[in-house]
Design brief:
homodimer; alpha+beta; L-amino peptidase D-ALA esterase/amidase; Ubiquitin-like (UB roll); 2 domains; seven-stranded mixed β-sheet; globular
Chain lengths: ~400, ~400
């Protein structure tokens, strides 16, 4: 973790599997803070509470359990989320207040949290808070559900003559769709940055990263991206007009892209990642419409799975996206092979076709779509749709 | 076919499998006609040509091949679609004109039609046009692609003292998403009904049926619903204010619903159909948003596949739909079992839970979602997502 933060993760007994299920991130003093939350209209209790607590632009701790999401739990669920925050504040003491603690939960919908286990878990974790890499890893592991691996990233930069860090951990492998934060992402930095500027930089970074990935186009009820800035690197607080603020924003965007890619790479049942580079759209919004449509299409995803250069499905997904399209200007390239030029097939020799099919068996496929209309562009990440996705989701109660 | 129509279907040699791939439906004289077409912005050449031909409100024939969709084929493709129409008009002679023939194609995207085969196929089919049930069945079979069975329906009613029929054949099992006509549906009737009234009745029937089903939320580039009315039942032409027009419209809606359900039941890889009944929405548009979101969610579809009463995923799909929702008013029932009341879980005994799980193993599951806000309602049909869907679509070039 960047300077000014400690972390811990462990087992409080929510998961029947006995895997880690409670994480704590605590700042040494009040931080500037910002968050981006799910757009789902049936948000979980922790989303409601954390969003409210963040209105002050100040926070000191994040407490998050996995195994139960505290969604559809009514007033009692809201009280549980508040009780998690209150217990952290009470245990860690001044200057932390309830409103400085941001609760998060992920897991099955529609069950009350086992509060006795969680409160005891907080008691157990508090003395183990630490600045070491092992503690970061323990926290990153304790927020996972169907994920197969923990996800973390770090960025380092110079701001105002000081070395500044941004660290992040993430959770997410199903119910991943673009439309705001769609997973749990907890970011900390020792940069000094006022809350309004943090908010602006975070919103931009999320739009470029987590809002441009898709595993299954489902949008969770629980998801949030939180960012706490301790200022402990000791530089002068950033201002909107600073070149340093631009540098900080770029680093934030970079770490979010890194974590977003880790989430897709751990997509449920993934065997192959694909990147869609859209250029020449009439607007960025149109480029995003196409990225959304292509990465979400079951027919595109199964073609990628089958290493099938079936670009007709790309045409279908482009056409259904709602973006402005002139069919006779559309160029499409798969894995470096032009397949559609000005809306018509590019003829391949049998040998070229075999090379294209072979290229599509790579772990990562790049699809380029140029609309020939304007300057709108976007880069999206998606994953294939496999039998394993079905197995995971037909047999697992989320 | 209703009075005034003949049909034929056969093999012209487009499909490598040697299965039937060319269908012809021909009226004895010019008919009032209407159509609804795909909203995909990269429509196939036949969609462009048929839409243009229908502007007159008059048509006499439908010619449709399967095995190649004539999409992304540029100007040459448009000429091919026109040549199909011209050849039918030329072969069958006066009073048929090119503009009276509506071409359709379904199959792989991005290949020119084998025109020599199609023109010879039309020559072969013309003398075999017939009024019998076998001819209807041959036509219904010749428009299939990944479908596992042919789809047809008939409705009979009394209008102005005469017996009137509406007949229809349909094709569709993948790339099925709501948003206008998303498959091939050819309807004929011996009712006498002016084209503007036909259009209105067809638009309404399609909105209630084909626009409320989903197999994979992909929207084909080729799809169309066509309706030709011969007037040969001999009653007075319908007028907008007639009770008979309302009766005709209801019968049209009923046959479209029947065909829509047949399409879902033949959904790629389906093992289980589910019906979503939304009530209490703030508007019909909101009810449709929820139907669209629930039937399209991969997580809902896999839960249905696993016979898993995982209503948290329904909550997620309701919340992400964009419809107005008050979580504390949402009631959800699965297969007759209340699972969520006022946004909170309904407690089940172990025995009740077992009965619910058993009920979810039925071929058809009914999900009821009441939002408790207003009078908006809608009924949607969807199918589960199975390993078989992946197998079909990872290995087949559409």
């Amino acid at each position: 973790m960047p300077r000014g933060f400690r972390a811990a993760g462990g087992i409080c007994g929510i998961k029947a599997s006995g895997k880690p299920d409670l994480a704590l991130i605590v700042a040494d003093h009040p931080c500037d803070a910002a968050g981006v939350f799910t757009t789902n209209r049936m948000p979980g209790a922790p989303v409601i509470v954390a969003r409210r607590h963040l209105r002050s632009g100040r926070a000191m701790a994040i407490v998050c359990n996995s195994g139960a999401s505290n969604v559809c739990t009514g007033r009692a669920g809201l009280e549980d989320a508040r009780a998690m925050a209150a217990h952290v504040a009470g245990t860690l003491g001044r200057p932390m207040r309830i409103g400085d603690v941001l609760p998060g939960s992920t897991g099955v919908i529609g069950h009350r949290l086992p509060m006795a286990k969680i409160l005891k878990g907080i008691d157990d974790l508090a003395p183990r808070l630490s600045r070491g890499v092992e503690a970061d890893h323990a926290a990153a592991t304790a927020i996972l559900t169907t994920d197969t691996r923990s996800k973390s990233a770090l960025r380092r930069m110079r701001l105002g003559g000081r070395t500044v860090h941004i660290g992040g951990i993430a959770k997410g492998s199903g119910m991943i769709a673009p439309n705001m934060a769609t997973m749990l992402v907890f970011l900390t930095t020792d940069a000094a940055c006022p809350a309004p500027l943090l908010r602006r930089a975070l919103k931009h970074a999320v739009d470029q990263s987590f809002n441009r990935i898709s595993v299954d186009h489902d949008t969770s009820t629980s998801d949030m991206v939180l960012l706490l800035a301790s200022g402990d690197s000791g530089h002068k607080p950033l201002r909107a007009s600073d070149a340093d603020y631009a540098r900080f924003s770029r680093a934030l965007e970079s770490i979010c892209m890194d974590l977003a890619e880790q989430v897709v790479l751990d997509g449920e049942g993934i065997t192959r990642l694909f990147e869609v580079r859209i250029t020449g759209a009439a607007s960025v919004a149109d480029a995003d419409r196409i990225g959304h449509s292509v990465t979400g299409s079951p027919l595109v995803k199964t073609a990628i799975h089958g290493a099938d250069p079936n670009w007709g499905r790309l045409v279908m997904a482009i056409g259904k996206s709602g973006a402005r399209v002139r069919p006779d200007r559309v160029n499409i390239t798969i894995a470096g092979f032009a397949v559609c030029r000005r809306g018509e097939p590019v003829k391949h020799t049998a040998a070229q076709h075999r090379r294209l099919e072979a290229a599509m068996k790579a772990d990562r496929i790049i699809i380029e779509i140029d609309l020939g209309l304007g300057k709108g562009q976007a880069r999206w990440l998606g994953c294939d749709l496999s039998r394993e996705y079905i197995a995971i989701n037909a047999d697992y109660t989320t």
